[in-house]
Write a structure and sequence with these properties.
124 residues; mainly alpha; 4 helices; extended
């Protein structure tokens, strides 16, 4: 995801920027659809609208806040190329944080399994 926002800043071609923006929007829409499905799968039917609406409201607010910080002259006021670099830095940071979280969950799950069944760890 970070690549689709960083690539236009490195190449500086308008067509590449449009193509990368289209891919970025496809990736974000796909991720939001999968996340909404996973959330909805674990909810009761009467809570679905509230949780999905709240999720969309929080996501829109965070997007607005990030855009305001990067664009507004009184805060950062960055030119367009540096805006894309900041956004790609955010995307890379969130991907790294997500993979660290998943690695910690996997390590924790493996550790719990080893504690429950210590004999199986010798058979590996």
């Amino acid at each position: 995801m970070g690549t689709t926002t960083l690539l236009p800043t490195l190449i500086q071609n308008l067509y590449v920027a449009y193509i990368c923006d289209a891919f970025f929007n496809i990736i974000v829409s796909t991720c939001m659809t999968i996340a909404t499905f996973k959330i909805a799968h674990s909810l009761m039917t009467n809570l679905y609208g509230f949780v999905v609406g709240l999720n969309a409201c929080i996501a829109g607010t965070l997007d607005l806040l990030a855009t305001f910080i990067v664009i507004d002259d009184h805060v950062l006021g960055l030119p367009p190329i540096q805006q894309y670099q900041v956004y790609s830095g955010f995307a890379v940071l969130f991907v790294v944080l997500y993979f660290c979280y998943k690695a910690m969950l996997l390590a924790f799950k493996t550790r719990q399994q080893d504690e429950r069944n210590p004999a199986s760890s010798f058979c590996r």
